[in-house]
Every structure is written in structure tokens, then in C-alpha cells.
Amino acid sequence: MQEIIAYVLVILAVVFLLRKFVFPSKKDKSCSTDCGCH
């Protein structure tokens, strides 16, 4: 049971990091963070 919980936490952490680094990287090329431009 503990292994299942550990694997779920690892998967959630990887998904969080992918979202954090993949999606903002596209926005950072055009402008700084939270500048409101698209």
C-alpha cells in the first residue's frame, strides 16, 4: 500500500514539474511572466 502511495506522489510531482517547465517556456519567449500579452 505504501508503495502505491509513493508511486502516485512521484507521478503527481513529475506532472507538476512538466506543467511548470513546459507551458511557461512558451510564454517566456514572447514576454515576461504575468505581463498579460498573448
Automatic annotation (TrEMBL):
Cross-referenced Pfam families, in alphabetical order?
A: FeoB_associated
UniProt keyword annotation of Membrane present: yes
What keywords appear on the UniProt entry? Membrane, Transmembrane, Transmembrane helix
Q: Which residues cross the membrane?
A: 6-23
Q: What protein is this chain from?
A: FeoB-associated Cys-rich membrane protein
